[in-house]
Every structure is written in structure tokens, then in C-alpha cells.
Amino acid sequence: MIIYICLMAVMAYLAFRWGKETKTGICHMMKEYTEKKETAEQVGNLLQFVGKCACASGGLMAVCFFWRMLAGDFPRVLAAVSILFYSLGFIRAMLILQRIQKEERGQN
Length: 108
Description:
Layout: H1 2-24, H2 37-71, H3 76-107
């Protein structure tokens, strides 16, 4: 559980950082998306959305961790919702990114 919380914290940090850099056009990880301003804005927003999902998922898992420490029982439903929340957010972002890539290929 601690590993998951730390992993989500790192994912949130990187997604927010890369999202901000992509929006400004200086991200070395997303160079292919920084050429056009509108594409950079869309991809930057997607990265920040993934960061928000990771932050929320890690926060829910932290609530599970402290609940287990204080109450002694493990809230399985809350832990499953935490993992599902990040998973669905990540899948949504990847589907939107795929659509953006198809639009870029269609214009070229």
C-alpha cells in the first residue's frame, strides 16, 4: 500500500511537471507534441488530468492506509475504487491521445 501511494505521488508530480512543460513547448519527453500550440495544449491538459487522477487515487489509498492503522480493518471497496479511479482516468487519457494522434496523421 505504501509503495502504491509513493508511486502515485511520483506519477502525479511527473504528470503535472510534464504537462506544464508541454503546454509551454519545452518538454523534452513530449517533443513531438510541442510543435503545434493547440496540440501542445491538449496533451498538456491530458497529462495534468492523469496527474489529478494519480493524486486522487494516492489520496484515497492513503485514507485506506490510515483507516487500517486506526480501525484495524481494511476497507477493500475504497482500495478498489482508488485503483479503479486511476485506471479509468489513465485509459480515458490514452484514448483521447490516440484520437489526437489520428487527427495529426490525417492532417499530414
